[in-house]
Write the structure tokens for this entry.
Amino acid sequence: MQRTLSAVEYSGDEEQLAVFAKALSHPVRIKILLLLATQQCCFTGELTELIPMAQSTISQHLKALLEAGLIQGEINPPKVRYCINRENWVLAYTLFEHFFYTPEAENSCTCGDRELQ
Amino acid sequence: MQRTLSAVEYSGDEEQLAVFAKALSHPVRIKILLLLATQQCCFTGELTELIPMAQSTISQHLKALLEAGLIQGEINPPKVRYCINRENWVLAYTLFEHFFYTPEAENSCTCGDRELQ
DNA sequence: TACATTAATCGCATATTTGGGATAAACGAA
DNA sequence: TTCGTTTATCCCAAATATGCGATTAATGTA
């Protein structure tokens, strides 16, 4: 889309954080990640049995998570085992942590006395 | 959309996390939040001067952040001062932290030896 | 070779997001 | 009252996201 002449500049962290956040922006992807993260180890398309969604839909969400780098997969025909990509998991953790930690957080703000909307 | 007969069930945390993540899923919203979080305190539509986007677009993104609960605003006609909603900020921080912290994280995974894609 | 299993991809419909111009709303100031 | 300032809304266009059925691809097995 981007019809502006002067495009907005983003830092690498800003863009990377947005990518991770977008991957987490759908509850079913949150659920999938939680399953993968807490299951003994890897996981497979048994997700289809745990989540009442079409196989193609689950596959699509897995692809989104794969592209965001939050999971990785091992082809083991005809099955595929997915698991958390620990390296990027830690990266995401770090980015979110730094993002939410703001030194000025303690500065009380006079804003919001009259709540908007 | 959701044409499935048996809808997927999500926990409150899963849904709330997805809502926060969606709010963070666009780099310009990340940038706005960082500006609000690090600026001495509140902020206003000077965002329009800092970010080369149409005023209506900035306003839209602010609305999205407002609806997600990450910011709050104080009407001070004809200006509006926005600032971080600290309460929900902490809630989001907590949710992301718990999400990324997985006890099983240490379990090495044989997955990904043969990288997929 | 023919078949079964598993998962990705395609095609389609619908919904949501994104961006911006134009306009409206709210208010103080002249 | 009429303007000017600031911000939200409305409207439109284009891009993405979401969901699913059908199909394809890859491989082991009978």
Summary: Residues 1-4, 44-45, 48, 55-56, 58-60, 62-63, 75, 77-80 of chain A lie near DNA strand C (CB under 10 Å from a C1'). Residues 12-97 of chain A form a domain with the Arc Repressor Mutant, subunit A fold (CATH 1.10.10.10).
